[in-house]
Recover the amino acids of this structure.
């Protein structure tokens, strides 16, 4: 069977200003950006967001897949979802973020 051709798609982050947590309204899709409210979260260095799974240096090692639900339910995590990804084999090849911050060293 011949290999599937690679196709590049642009995906954009959308919300109504409440992408905080898995229960928020953050979406990831191919629709072009429109005028939408800005998402906010508060960073607290005394309560860091944990890293789960993946290729990370931890002792003892905790590599591989983990259920991200506990992290995605935190109010200091922005979540953008699209149910269509479960059917696809995809790779992120580049990202662009526009970030505004109100502190000099975060």
């Amino acid at each position: 069977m011949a290999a599937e051709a690679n196709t590049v798609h642009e995906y954009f982050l959308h919300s109504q200003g409440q992408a905080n947590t898995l229960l928020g309204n953050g979406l990831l899709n191919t629709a072009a950006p429109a005028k939408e409210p800005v998402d906010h979260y508060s960073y607290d260095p005394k309560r860091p967001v944990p890293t789960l799974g993946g290729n990370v240096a931890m002792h003892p090692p905790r590599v591989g897949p983990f259920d991200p639900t506990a992290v995605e339910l935190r109010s200091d995590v922005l979540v953008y979802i699209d149910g269509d990804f479960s059917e696809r084999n995809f790779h992120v090849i580049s990202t662009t973020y526009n970030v505004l911050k109100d502190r000099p060293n975060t």
